Structure prediction request, 56 residues.
Amino acid sequence: MPIRATKWFVEGALNDDDEVDTKNEEVREFVSNALFDKMETSWDQFLIECLTSLPF
Prediction:
């Protein structure tokens, strides 16, 4: 349950000046949307299925 209760997010990469540039922000937004908004299965359901494969 602690893994499922965690707030999940995608962090954008930083450029050489330790700043987020426009390209990196576009990539972060795309990946975030793909994982959390556009999947047929919800992120929570995906985690449930992944966690069932862990040995106890």
